[in-house]
Structures are given as C-alpha cells and as structure tokens.
C-alpha cells in the first residue's frame, strides 16, 4: 500500500522504546509547551497532522502511533487502556517530556484518561475528544457522520471503538477487516468507502488519504482492544488532577445533561458539546472545535 503522507521536513521522526515495545512518533519540536496527541482506534498519528499544523506555532506537538497501529510494534499482549497508558507514560519518559498537555480521541481519550489518573502529577492539562463511556444514558444518540459504512464504532460515527465486544460487535470481525484493508490499495479505499468520499467532498481529501493509509498499516492484534474494558469515568476521573476539557459530539439535551454529570467527576473539568459534530469532532466541525480548544489552552 502506498504512503504519500507528507510530514514537514523540519519535524523530528523516529522510534522510542516504551513499555518494552517500539513506538513510532513525529514531533514538531522547539522550546514551546508540549502537546501530545493519542489517536483513536484504526487511525494513527498522521491522521492528526491537521491539528498539529494548527497548533505548531504555539506548541511542540507530538503525534505517536498506538500499539498495533501505524509503524509501532504490535506485541502479543493485552491492548487495554492500562497497557496503552503505560505506553504513553513510557513515551513521555523516553522523549524527556515534562508537563505535557495530553490530548486523546476516543480510544486515545481512554489512554490519556488512564495515564492522567494513574500519574496525576504528569500532565499540565488534559483534553478528551468524544470519549466513549460505559455508562447508561450516553453514546446512544450521537449524530451520524462519515464512517457509517466502514468503521462502525460507538454511535457508528468515526472509527471503530473499544468496548463493543458483545455478540455481533465490531470486535468479532476486526481481524478479517484488517486483513482486507491490508490487501486493498489506498485508491481503492478512497473510491469504495463512503467515509473517505464524504471527507473529500467536504474539502478534506488529504485527511481522507491519511486515514486510508492508516488502515493499511493496522495489525490484526488490535482486535484485542475489544477484549478490554473501557475506562469508567465514575471510578477513574476523580483521580485526574489536571485541568481537563472534554469536547463531546452533538447530542440531545438529556444525553448532554448526563454527560455533564459525568464530567463533574473530574477534579477540575469542563465539557463542551459541539453542535452538528459526530464522533470525530475535530474532523466534522474543525473550526468550532479548535476554537473551544484554544479557549481552554489559554487558561492552562
């Protein structure tokens, strides 16, 4: 599968050993505050290049590939939030990153939350993009967006999500899906998958290509994400000490109110809902989501 993703020439690219595996990363560099991005399931770090470029003048942005994704190792181990959090904390140590802002989407939001709860002294701030919560009354009415046919995750909007390991859930067939993606060219994916066509039609063809390329770099071991539990915010969010912003997808008012109740478990948290956004909030409503992010970052 071809790879045409263009990372700025001046950025650092490489691998670090963390938690006994090699993790691939790229980094904008500089002496600015560090902003570390943990991507969602089936994506990789390059899928967040637009956000990195948006923040690159103000932050040293680090994009890394989670285990089993991108160019990182795919160990014969568990793939739950505890393991991924250990990976992330090991990455911070290997790159000598102090006082980072940790940003995570979906699966990556679970990773970041688990890391921040375990080591509340590490992050300067935390941003969680549409975390999926194993709590009654949420994740039921997320507005549909790109990805309804190819990546059925929580809310069927965006990437496949962890925690759907019941009968008939997407975890049942993810290994076969990964093998199919590995045997499909980027051009074929861009043509066949509604998600990619929708992104292109909305003026994001480069993003569509990066996400399609990420599919071809997946390893079947990522199916183990579905064998693990999601982070329960009612049990773990109280351990997160850093100022935290939750950026949630659009939802009806009863679900929004339930999500506000969940955000209240944080020691220093706030939640915003972005109208018309699906699970991939920063892809669906980039300007409004980034505006909310910048307003939060100005306070930390």
Automatic annotation (TrEMBL):
Pfam families: Abhydrolase_6 (PF12697)
Biased composition (Acidic residues): 146-174
One GO cellular component term: membrane
Name of the protein in question: Pimeloyl-ACP methyl ester carboxylesterase
Domain AB hydrolase-1, residue spans: 36-287
Region span, Disordered: 136-174
SUPFAM superfamilies xrefs: alpha/beta-Hydrolases
InterPro entries assigned: AB_hydrolase_1, AB_hydrolase_fold, AB_hydrolase_sf
């Amino acid at each position: 599968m071809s790879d045409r993703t263009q990372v700025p020439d001046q950025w650092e690219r490489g691998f670090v050993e963390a938690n006994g595996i090699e993790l691939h990363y790229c980094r904008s560099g500089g002496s600015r505050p560090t902003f570390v991005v943990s991507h969602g399931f089936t994506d990789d770090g390059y899928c967040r290049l637009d956000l990195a470029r948006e923040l690159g003048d103000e932050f040293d942005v680090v994009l890394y590939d989670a285990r089993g994704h991108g160019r990182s190792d795919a160990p014969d181990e568990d793939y739950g939030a505890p393991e991924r959090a250990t990976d992330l904390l090991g990455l911070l140590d290997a790159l000598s990153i102090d006082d980072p802002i940790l940003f995570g989407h979906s699966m990556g939001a679970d990773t970041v939350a688990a890391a921040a709860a375990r080591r509340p002294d590490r992050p300067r701030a935390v941003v969680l993009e549409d975390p999926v919560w194993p709590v009654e009354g949420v994740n039921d009415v997320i507005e549909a967006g790109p990805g309804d046919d190819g990546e059925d995750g929580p809310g069927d909007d965006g990437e496949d999500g962890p925690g759907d390991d019941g009968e008939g859930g997407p975890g049942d067939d993810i290994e076969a899906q990964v093998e199919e993606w590995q045997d499909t060219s980027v051009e074929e994916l861009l043509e066949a998958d509604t998600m990619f066509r929708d992104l292109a039609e909305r003026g994001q063809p480069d993003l569509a290509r990066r996400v399609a390329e990420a599919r071809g770099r997946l390893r079947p071991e990522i199916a183990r994400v579905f064998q693990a539990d999601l982070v329960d915010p009612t049990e773990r969010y109280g351990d997160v000490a850093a100022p935290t912003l939750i950026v949630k997808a659009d939802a009806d008012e009863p679900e929004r109110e339930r999500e506000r109740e969940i955000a209240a478990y944080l020691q220093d948290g706030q939640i915003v809902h972005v109208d018309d956004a699906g699970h991939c909030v920063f892809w669906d409503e980039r300007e409004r989501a980034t505006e909310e992010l910048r307003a939060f970052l100005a306070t930390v």
